Amino acid sequence: MQPYTPSRSDRVGIWIFVVAGIGIAIWTTVAATLRVIEVVVNRDVPVLAEFGGTPADAPIGPGGAPVTVGLDQAVLTVSGLPPRRSSHSCCSRWRSCSPS
Q1: How far apart are CA 10 and CA 13, in angstroms?
Q2: For residue 99, what is the DSSP state?
Q3: Cβ pair 53, 70 in contact under 8 A
Q4: Model pLDDT for residues 65-77, shown as the tens digit of each residue
Q5: pTM score of the predicted model
Q6: Do 18 and 11 touch, CB atoms closer than 8 A?
Q7: What are 35-59's pLDDT values in tens digits?
Q8: Most-buried pick from 78, 89, 98, 99 (CB within 10 A)?
Q9: Helix, strand or coil for residue 74?
Q10: Transmembrane stretches, by residue range (predicted)?
């Protein structure tokens, strides 16, 4: 039995997938880093909010008159997000956890 040797087109295809994978990994890392920086700065942070059909008045009528619409989701720009409090669930598993 002879060992398999990939053809030239197989090698080109493999390299295309390798380069695409590296590109996707770099893009994901950059996007995640930028989002973390955006949240850590805590100024004008866009946050997606789900409302599930909540009625709201929007000024989209004639002359800017309010019209009742069903609000499903919106992007809110917020500043001064409160820090998340830890529930310290790690304390039940590891005794070295100390509250902050």
Answers
A1: 5
A2: -
A3: yes
A4: 999 999 899 898 9
A5: 0.57
A6: no
A7: 999 888 888 889 899 988 889 898 9
A8: 78
A9: strand
A10: 12-34
